[in-house]
Amino acid sequence: MTYRVIQWATGGVGAAAVRAVLRHPDLELVGCWVHSDDKNGRDVGEIIGTEPIGINATTDAAALLAMDADCVVYAPLMPDKKVVADLLGCGKNVVTPLGWFLPTDRDARLEAVAQEAGVTLHGTGIDPGGITDLFPLMFSALTSAATFVRAEEFSDIRSYNAPDVVRWIMQFGATPAEAMAGPMLGLLTGGFTQSLRMILQGMGFDRSAEIRTHQDVAVATAPIDSPIGVIEPGLVAAQRFQWDAAIGDKTVARIAVNWLMGDENLEPAWDLGAAGERFEVEIKGDPDMLVTIKGLQPETPEAGWLRNPGIVATANHLVNSIPYVCDAAPGIKSYLDLPLMAGRAHPTLSDRP
Ligand SMILES: NC(=O)c1ccc[n+]([C@@H]2O[C@H](COP(=O)([O-])OP(=O)(O)OC[C@H]3O[C@@H](n4cnc5c(N)ncnc54)[C@H](OP(=O)(O)O)[C@@H]3O)[C@@H](O)[C@H]2O)c1
């Protein structure tokens, strides 16, 4: 069976998702929504830098809603619940890296829309939506009597090709007070808290655990050359966000991200450690486990501006989930509901993409 797919937005994740759809043997791209007027009407292949593929991008959401399609890869900058409801309401399954990793009380309306239309909404990605929830749950099957679970990212944020986001939303280059008062902790908390709750639920920890959030900053001690310009001494050059699930005085699950503008000239003197950029999943149990995931960060900050493997992996996780999501029962479905979802082999094994 071939599943008909619409791509919603062609930023970093969206463009990589189009490539993954084109390579997937069970998927066919049938439409593409873009936000930018200058992409309206252009061939999608041209937008993502490949050969023309005969599908023109459009800013006309209504035309795409009316189109016959099985699934939408919804990857714009910010989530719009009305658009997601419209997509579900007209009978399209939705996969997205923007939320809905685990349904919450606030999702009752979308759940009802999906049920009514007989379709499924699934949030996935890497962080959150993979490394922070699926992988800890999967590795936990190798332990017993687990007492603590941790998923943590260690990245050089200079490789993130979104300077406006890094400067004005993430507040790098701002004063510590500005960064601490900025929107980032709030923006991140929704998704990462869903990951924490999925771990609690999936592993049988007390679901009433208290979620505690933390944000710390490190400042430059000398001018740091960065993609957002020189960060002067005293201004924010590294940030750490952490979410803990605590039962009484015991922290049972932790998710953290460490984003550094390189690891020199920082106060406190944070660094990426001998293992460098990576993701880690740790479980304290019998036995203890530590899994280090390499390869999802680019080899250099400059390489990340051309192709960021973490963004590609996010897109792949979305696209690979499509057949399973289309076949799932209606509603908002998490990894706790869906079967094992695998990637697909190269058709000829002849070269690497
Ligand atoms: N869960 C995860 O692991 C994970 C990983 C990576 C990213 N994400 C999230 O996924 C989303 C997309 O990431 P990205 O790296 O692809 O971002 P991006 O490169 O900034 O692209 C976002 C796209 O959204 C569209 N857009 C821009 N302004 C918009 C607006 N005002 N309203 C609606 N759409 C707008 C544009 O599409 P067109 O160019 O087509 O016009 C833009 O290219 C972000 O929210 C990001 O935080 C999640």
Topology:
Layout: E1 3-8, H1 12-23, E2 27-33, H2 44-48, H3 61-65, E3 71-74, H4 81-89, E4 93-96, H5 108-117, E5 120-123, H6 134-140, E6 144-156, H7 163-169, H8 176-181, H9 184-203, E7 210-220, E8 224-226, E9 229-231, E10 236-247, E11 250-260, E12 266-267, E13 278-286, E14 289-293, H10 301-306, H11 309-327, E15 331-332
Parallel strand pairs: 1-2, 1-3, 3-4, 4-5, 5-15, 6-11
Antiparallel strand pairs: 6-13, 7-10, 7-12, 8-9, 10-11, 13-14
The structure holds NADP nicotinamide-adenine-dinucleotide phosphate.
NADP nicotinamide-adenine-dinucleotide phosphate is lined by residues 9-14, 34-36, 39, 75-77, 97-98, 125-129, 162, 311, 314.
InterPro entries: DAP_DH_C, DapB_N, NAD(P)-bd_dom_sf
Protein name: Dihydrodipicolinate reductase
Domain 2,4-diaminopentanoate dehydrogenase C-terminal: 140-342
